[in-house]
Amino acid sequence: MAESLFVPQTADRKRIYDEITPQIAALVEGEIDLTANLANITAVLKEAFGFFWVGFYVVKENQLVLSAFQGTIACTRIDFDRGVCGHCYTTKEIIIVPNVEEFPGHIACSSASKSEIVLPVFDKDGAVTMVLDVDSDRLDDFSEIDAKGLGKIVRIIEKLI
């Protein structure tokens, strides 16, 4: 397990993802507790990018239930048919929302959240087992660079499930 994190001092998100992804892989290597791994991954993402909120919602009892996260208090349970996280769950696709106030059915866990990206995490059978939710306090803060970078991190998580 890695005990420290190197984050390049740059605004180039692709470079940051390229630097932190192998560090995340090393961080979770050998640790079998999924919650501990998710907690460390959220900490890395928060530290590396300063995102407003980053966390996981796991599938439990026919809902998405809050799991490891970094940031302000969050919604605890989200129905599969509600909000950006629910939309990601049902479509099984990465969702990038430039302005959350323009997303139909957006759940405002925090009024400070302005844009969002949510990625599905699949189990070995291809079912969505959780979603990675990242919020920004800036409009239009996410792009395909984030989708690809976070997607590589999601692949690491899928190997742990």
Describe the structure in your own words.
With 161 residues, this protein is α+β, with helices and mostly antiparallel strands. The chain has one domain (13-160): GAF domain (Beta-Lactamase), CATH 3.30.450. Helix content is 36%, strand content 24%. The chain contains four helices and six strands. It has helices at 13-28, 34-49, 83-91, 144-160, and strands spanning 53-60, 63-70, 77-78, 95-97, 115-122, 128-136. Strands 3-2-1-6-5-4 form a six-stranded antiparallel sheet, with helices on both faces. A hairpin with a 2-residue loop joins strand 1 and strand 2. Helix 1 runs antiparallel to helix 2 and helix 1 (13-28) runs parallel beside helix 4 (144-160). The longest helix is centred in the C-terminal third of the chain and has 17 residues, at 144-160. It is globular. The chain starts with 12 loop residues before the first helix and ends with a helix. The model has no long low-confidence stretch (mean pLDDT 94).
Summarize the structure.
With 161 residues, the protein is α+β, with helices and mostly antiparallel strands. It is built from four helices and six strands, in the order ααβββαβββα. The chain has one domain: Beta-Lactamase, CATH 3.30.450.40.
